[in-house]
Amino acid sequence: MSIAQARTARSLEVRELHKEYPTPAEPLVVLRGVSLDMCPGQSLAVLGPSGSGKSTLLNIIGTLDAPTRGSVSFDGSNPFALPPGDLARFRAQRIGFVFQDHHLLPQCTAMENVLIARLAAGPVRAQDKDRAQQLLNAVGLSQRHAHLPSELSGGERQRVAVARALMNRPMLLLCDEPTGNLDARNSAAIGELLTNLAAQDDVMLIVATHSQSLAQRFGRRVQLQEGLLAES
Question: Phi first, then psi: what are they for 72, rounded to 5°?
Answer without folding.
Answer: -125, 130
